[in-house]
User: Fold this.
Amino acid sequence: MDDRPDELDANAVAGLVQELRRGTVVLGCLCVLTEPRYGYALLATLEQAGLAVDANTLYPLLRRLEKQGLLTSEWNTDEARPRKFYVVSPLGSRVREALAAEWADLNRHLDTVIQGVKP
Amino acid sequence: MTISTTGKGSRRPQAVPLAERYVWAVSSRLPESMRDDVARELRGTIADMTEARGSRLDDEAVVRAVLVELGDPALLSREYAGPPRHLVGPRLYDDYVRLLKALAVTVLPVVLAVVALVNVGVEDAGLGRGLLSAAGFTAQVAVHLAFWSTLLFVIIERTGAEPQVVLEGRERDAWSPDRLPETVVPRQIGVPDLFWGVGMALFLAVWLPWQHFRSAYQDGAGDPVPLLDPELWNGWLPALAVLALAVAVLEVRAYLVGYWTRGLMVANLVLNAVTAAYFVALYLLTDPVNPAYSAAMAADGIDWDPAGAVPGVVVGVLVVVAWDSIDCVLKHRRLVASGA
Assistant:
């Protein structure tokens, strides 16, 4: 079979890439939020780390993680603009360890598979 | 809140900043428990994102780009709250309750009084039985009113339709800040208009068959004598039912849009003209009142012919139709003048 990814619909590729990245956003947040950060600061930090996330995905995600007890939040009203700071909870730390271990495993296995199919 | 229009080709009143309209569009769809908190955070986030682009909230072009990045408020609120698990959400709840209350305090007492009067006064059912049967009928009407009103609002909730001028005539696929609902120009078409429009249609839908099958008078064979000439079912009365249905559909559409846009105004004028023509033609070409009914009333010793009321009803319809037409034209002109 011909290997011609450029003929595959560019949107379809973007969709697949997005799907691949989706699960990693949670792990990224749990790692970066060991220090309290507000929404946009987290977005910028993740982006600098090469883990760009859409703003409209990240902000609702933070709420969901908080609801699941993986994050806690606190309003900081010291500055002119009140901001909601999120930080990893003890439960979130444990989940982060589990996810990180899972990621390392996956990475190893995928590597093996990828090496295996190369000519 | 004042309505001011900035120059420079801007067509919308600018009293409420774009960012605030966006925050409202998102938060008004959320459950109350999280609404204020999300609104507060979103406000800060939009400001942060705007500043990160080296600008400030009063720079509409930059705010616009930020809002495009955040995307359709309906989708964002869905991300926050998940798909709706309610029949009627916070956005429509107040209107929903208002409609139910209005129907309950206006329609039900009238139905109760009329049916009780007919039962006791005309059909000689006896006071106790007459009242009881009237109460039972009224309870049925109440269930119908509640059910159909609820269904109407559930459909509005699911279809995501919402009052906004700017939706008219724009492409609907790609979201853009232009589609943010106006929170500046107050609605022109509210619950009362919806109530009257849909109420009239409901009334006709109930009354037309009712007067045919449940008349106060029976003929020799014991069959009811309808108030309206049964001959009219050959076309005139079905046409009236269709007309009432069209009016009800237009009223719902007008309520959803919330403003007398050009399209709605034209449709309303056409329907009003058709209604006026219908009643004038009905008056000129037919005798709507069943002669047998007049005879039965006379035989009952009532010295009044219902046929005499027809010109009054027709004139009343013409007055209402004319008033409604003038009202919608004036409101449309006000809407245009406000710059929306």
Remarks:
- Confidence is low (pLDDT under 50) at residues 1-14, 163-172 of chain B.
- The radius of gyration of chain B is 26 Å.
